[in-house]
Design brief:
Layout lengths: L7 H19 L6 H14 L1 H8 L6 H6 L3 H11 L3 H6 L1 H20 L6 H20 L1 E5 L1 E4 L5 E7 L5 H4 L6 E5 L20 E8 L3 E7 L4 H9 L8 E8 L14 E6 L3 H17 L7 E7 L23 E5 L5 H4 L9 E3 L4 H10 L2
Parallel strand pairs: 8-9, 9-10, 10-11
Antiparallel strand pairs: 1-7, 2-3, 3-6, 4-5, 4-7, 5-6
Helix pairs in contact: 1-2, 1-5, 3-5, 3-8, 7-8
InterPro entries: FAD-bd_8, FAD-bd_FR_type, Fe_red_NAD-bd_6, Ferric/Cupric_Reductase, FNR_nucleotide-bd
GO molecular function, one term: ferric-chelate reductase activity
Protein name: Putative Ferric reduction oxidase 8, mitochondrial
Length: 366
């Protein structure tokens, strides 16, 4: 499809569904104008239950359970049914707030509009309440350790997880959680405390231990990352942080070890997703008595300090000593930054590579 218009499969599904709904709107209506107008309204409202179901982010969503998938694979179909792309691109916060408020107030309005719509409204409302309950039950709060990574705008969080959820967190690499900041952890200088009650930000799980998960995020201009960055300045940064999940579709990935060669490429903070996959694949290769050289990782970062959080994975060979990992640094690094990744010079390419040069070098690197 045209760049920025989404994937072809979603358009095919959306147009096919649209054609089916138009058929339902006109078939059997005859020449009665009022009949066809009412049919359009009823058919439109009849889509509310599936629309709400496709928007559910809970791991216990009926569609997620039935199709053995996750919300990020279902959400594009939700967007096809109700596209608000211009607003979402302009400001996700405005989009989310309007989306939530409109989704709530329209239900009672339609419920009292006419009795013919009430069955669909009750179904949609039931799914909405079900999603809230599931997400609340799947949310845990723990006292997190929050630190700023030197010479970067990265923030590292270590959040304890209950033993009852440890198996779910270790079930698959590359999963993510939804993080929210409870009122007691909101920075005192925040202009409006209520905004954090509406923020549930997804973050990839960089690593999982027996008792905690580790997140690494880049602090930009968003209210959540700014609040977390502020918490790192506290004398004892162990505020309570709420986590929902884990979520993600990697648990249903095919067995990649059946391929002859596997090349993983990450850029910047995207390594929080790729590195767990790389480690998981290396473990699988060892389990199947296959050469670890079949899996290679290329990681492009701006500065050496951006890699410091990942260099010494627990119980593994340091990343800069791994012959199957190549890290490309695209900007000049100071001496203090370069010191964080000592090791084999073949593992780290220290240069001021431009983006185009990084791509070329990555292609020719064996």
């Amino acid at each position: 499809m045209v760049a920025g218009w989404g994937e072809r499969k979603f358009w095919i599904a959306g147009l096919g569904w649209w054609a089916w709904l138009i058929t339902l709107c006109v078939v059997g209506t005859g020449d009665d104008y009022m009949h066809i107008t009412k049919r359009f309204g009823i058919v439109a409202v009849s889509q509310f239950p599936i629309h709400y179901m496709l928007s559910m982010k809970s791991a216990y969503s009926p569609l997620s359970l039935a199709l053995n998938t996750s919300h990020e694979e279902l959400n594009p179909y939700h967007r096809v049914l109700g596209p608000l792309e211009p607003i979402r691109r302009w400001s996700y916060r405005v989009f989310f707030t309007i989306h939530l408020i409109f989704g709530i107030i329209i239900l009672p309005m339609l419920f009292f509009h006419t009795s013919a719509l009430r069955i669909y409204i009750l179904e949609a409302f039931g799914l909405f309440i079900y999603d809230i309950i599931c997400r609340k039950l799947d949310t845990t709060t723990g006292f997190a350790s929050i630190t700023a990574i030197p010479n970067t705008n990265l923030v590292k969080l270590e959040i304890p997880i209950p033993a009852t959820k440890q198996k779910r967190f270790t079930a698959a690499p590359g999963q993510h959680i939804y993080l929210s900041i409870p009122p007691e952890s909101t920075p005192p200088n925040t202009s409006t405390l209520s905004i954090h009650n509406l923020l549930f930000n997804p973050f990839t799980i960089a690593s999982v231990s027996a008792t905690s998960i580790t997140l690494v995020l880049r602090s930009l201009s968003g209210p959540t990352s700014k609040a977390l960055k502020h918490l790192t300045t506290l004398p004892k940064a162990h505020p309570p942080i709420s986590v929902e999940g884990p979520l993600g579709s990697t648990k249903s990935f095919p067995d990649l070890t059946s391929y002859d060669r596997i090349l993983l490429i990450a850029g910047g903070i995207g390594a929080t997703y790729i590195l767990p996959l790389y480690e998981h694949l290396q473990d699988q290769m060892e389990t199947h008595a296959r050469s670890p050289d079949r899996v290679q990782l290329i990681w492009s970062i701006r500065s050496a300090a951006d890699a410091s959080w990942a260099l010494k994975p627990e119980g593994r060979v340091p990343l800069n000593d791994d012959e199957n990992v190549r890290i490309f640094i695209t900007q000049h690094s100071s001496a203090s930054e370069e010191s964080v990744i000592p090791g084999s010079p073949t593992a780290i390419e220290m240069s001021d590579l431009k983006k185009e040069e990084v791509v070329v070098n990555a292609r020719v690197t064996n």
